[in-house]
Design goal:
Length: 127
């Protein structure tokens, strides 16, 4: 059973940075996984944030975070990261990491296309 564990959330002020980490225990096949970050703001639906493909060549971002957030992965550590800069109060949400085995280099942006999910980590940005 693949386990997904996020860490790195916290409370920061607007303009600060945070780096989220997510370990996906798919040791034999991690390098073939598409990995993504989603978030759920208070009172709202879960939304796509960023995704990184199996080769790290393809990275896709939601318009709301483009230029501020960067997804990366370290296959040797079975870890995907989300570097979040210039945080805004609107970024306040529970952030979820997701992964799925993929035969293509382009990662999905739809939550339903991901098989494995973490429990989420809270990010709160105060103004």
């Amino acid at each position: 059973q693949v386990q997904v564990v996020e860490s790195g959330g916290g409370t920061v002020q607007a303009g600060d940075s945070l780096r989220l980490s997510c370990v996906v225990s798919a040791r034999a096949t991690f390098n073939q996984y598409s990995l993504a970050w989603f978030r759920q703001p208070p009172g709202k639906e879960r939304e796509f944030v960023a995704a990184i493909g199996r080769s790290s060549i393809v990275r896709v971002y939601a318009d709301s975070v483009k230029g501020r957030f960067t997804a990366s992965r370290d296959n040797s550590k079975l870890t995907v990261y989300l570097q979040m800069n210039s945080l805004e109060p609107e970024d306040t949400a529970v952030y979820y990491c997701a992964g799925t085995y993929s035969r293509t280099t382009s990662p999905p942006k739809v939550a339903g296309d991901y098989t494995y999910w973490g429990q989420g980590t809270q990010v709160t940005v105060s103004s």
